[in-house]
Amino acid sequence: MKRRKFITKTIKHAGVIALAPSLWASCRKEPIDKSVIVIGAGISGLAAAQKLTEKGYKVTVLEAQDKVGGRLRTNRTLGIAFDEGASWIHGITGNPITDLAQKAGMTTFQTVDENRKSYDIGGVVRSSATYDTAEAELETILNTLMKKGSATQSFETVFNAQYPNYANNRLWKFLLSTYVTFDTGDLDKLSSLLYNEGEVFGGVEKIVTNGYDTIAHYLAGSVDVQLNRRVTQVDYTADKVKVTHNGTVSEADYVIVTVPLGVLKKNSILFTPTLPSNKQTAIQKLGMNCVNKFLLTWSNAFWDDVQYISYTPEIKDKFNYFVNVKKFNPSVNALMTFAYADYARQTETLTDAQVTADIMAHLKDMYGTSIPNPTNMLRTKWNSNENAFGSYSYTAVGTEMKHFDDMAAAVNNKLFFAGEHTEVDYFSTAHGAYLSGIREAQKIIDL
Ligand SMILES: Cc1cc2nc3c(=O)[nH]c(=O)nc-3n(C[C@H](O)[C@H](O)[C@H](O)COP(=O)(O)OP(=O)(O)OC[C@H]3O[C@@H](n4cnc5c(N)ncnc54)[C@H](O)[C@@H]3O)c2cc1C
Fold first, then answer.
1. Which of 60, 135, 222, 375 matches a 20 to 30 Å C-alpha distance to 398?
2. Which of 156, 235, 233, 225 lies closest to 189, judged by CA?
3. Rg, C-alpha atoms of the chain
4. Can you list the domains of the chain with their CATH numbers?
5. Burial of 56 (C-beta count, 10 Å sphere; 0-12/13-18/19+)
6. d(CA 405, CA 423)
7. CA-wise closest residue to 318 among 280, 279, 300, 292
8. Residues 6+ apart with CB under 8 A from 15
9. Is residue 429 within 6 Å of ligand 1 at its C-beta?
C-alpha cells in the first residue's frame, strides 16, 4: 500500500555501501582531540555518533527520552513487537538498513501488496479487477499530475479539478489515503508539484518482526548515550558550542542537531544566535505529517487469511487498512490499523474506548456484528508527542527541494543538522535518517 512502488524515477544509490559498524571498527583511528555532542538518539544521531566514536572523536549523545531509537520505537508490553514508528524496510536492494538489520539481528518478513482483500461498506467484497484497474490508473495519474500542478496549489485542489468524479468515490478516497497521504501528508497541504519527489531503493518490501528498535540498540552499543537529557538551548556564539540540558551546560567543538522537524517547528530549542534565515524558512516550509498506528489483539483470528485487508469508509484516512500480524507472527492474533493526517490528529483527542469502538465498527461491517471485542488495544499519538510533534516530513505547498538542503547545511562549521527531514533524496524514512547521520559525521571528519 505504498506510493513508493509507483515512483518510476531512476533508482539512486543502488550501490550505496553503508559502512557497517564492524567495518568501522577495522578503520578505527587514534583518539582525536575534538568533542562532539549529538542531540537525539534516533537512528540519525546514533549513526553519526557511532561513526565519529569509531574515528576517535569524543562523542556524547544527549537524548530527552529514557530510551534510544526515537521514531524507531517498539512497544513490547503485550509480548509482541508492536512498532509504533517505522515498520518496513522500503526496498531492500542497496538499502543500508538491509545490511544493518542483518548485523543487528533484526528479523523481517516480505510483504506483498497484492496479497489483499478489499471490502466496501456493507461488507461487500470488491472484485480484484475493480481494485487493480483503479490502482493502475492511480499509478498513471501520480506519474503525470505534477505537470498540471503549480507552486501555490495543493495536490487535492489539482486532483479534484482534473478528476471531479473521484472526489467522493470511496475506493479513490481509500487509494489516495493509503498510497499518497500515508507516504506524504495532508492532501490539502501537499504540494501539487513535488508530491512524487524522493528516490527509492529497489527490491521487495520487508516488515520487521522483532522490533525496529533492534537497530537502535545495536548502533547505541558502543556509543556514550545519556538518557533523560532534554536539550533546551544551543549557544554557538563562542569557539565551543554550549548545550543546555536539564539545567546544566555541556560544551563541545561540534554539535549535531537531530531532533525531528516537528520539534524544530515548535522552537523547543533556543538557538543563540538565531538560526540563519534560510534554515528558519526551511523549517517553516517543509510539512510534517501525522500517521498514527493501532494494534488490536484477540484470542482467535476471525479475519481473512491475507496480508492486507482494505476497507473503504466514507471518512477518509480513517482505519481503512489492516495489516494481518498473524501472517508474519503466526502465534499472534492481531491486526494493525492506521489513521492519517488530520484524521490521525483527531484520534488523539479520542479515548481508548472510542478508538476501539470506531475500529470495531469497521471490522463488524466486514465480518458481522458477532465478532468479539479485542482483548487489548495499543495506540500512538505522534502529533502530541513532545519528542516528535508528528510522524515525518513531506513536501507541502511552498516547499522547494532546496529546503531539504538548507535543513542539512552546517552553520559556522560548528552546528550540524541530521535527521530524515534533512535528506533530500530519502526524506521521511529510516534509511534517509541513517544516511543523514553518516553524512554529517563525514562532514566533521572532513574538516
Ligand atoms: C508512524 C510512523 C511510521 C513510519 N514508518 C516507516 C517505515 O515503515 N519505514 C521507514 O523507513 N520509515 C518509517 N518512518 C520514518 C522513520 O521512523 C523516521 O524517518 C526515522 O526513524 C527518523 O529518525 P531520526 O533520527 O531522523 O529522528 P528520531 O528517530 O525522531 O530521533 C530524534 C531523537 O531526538 C530526541 N529529541 C527530541 N527533542 C529533544 C531534545 N530537546 N533534547 C534531546 N533529545 C531530543 C527524540 O526523543 C528522538 O529520540 C515512520 C515514522 C513514523 C512516526
1. 135
2. 156
3. 22
4. 3-110+205-286+398-446 (3.50.50.60), 112-200+289-379 (3.90.660.10)
5. middle
6. 7
7. 292
8. 94
9. yes
Q: Which residue has the cell 523547543?
A: 268
Report d(CA 442, CA 163) in Å as an integer: 47
d(CA 186, CA 394): 9
- In sequence order, the 6+-apart residues with CB closer than 8 A to the CB of 446 are none
Q: What is the pLDDT of residues 298-335, one digit of tens each?
A: 999 999 999 999 999 999 999 999 999 999 999 999 99
Q: Which residue owns the Cα nearest ligand 1 atom 34?
A: 40
Write out pLDDT tens, residues 386-427. Answer: 999 999 999 999 999 999 999 999 999 999 999 999 999 999
Strand boundaries in 104-188, DSSP class E: 108-111, 116-120
| 204 vs 112: CA distance, rounded Å | 8
Q: Which three cell numbers stand for residue 152?
A: 501555490
Residue to mutate (ligand 1; options 259, 261, 439, 440; most atoms within 8 A of CB)? 259
- How many residues in total does the chain contain? 447
Q: pTM for this structure? A: 0.95
Q: Which three cell numbers stand for residue 65?
A: 527520552
Query: In the beta sheet, which residues pair with residue 202?
Result: 93
Specify the DSSP class assigned to residue 275: P
Q: Which atom of ligand 1 is nearest to the CA of 45?
A: 25
Ligand 1 atom nearest to 263, measured from its CA: 38
Joined together, the cell numbers standing for residue 75 give 512497544
Pairing of strands 254-257, 116-120: unpaired
Dig out the grid coordinates for 390 from the structure.
508528528
63 C-beta closer than 6 A to ligand 1: yes
Name the residue with the closest Cα to ligand 1, atom 4.
86
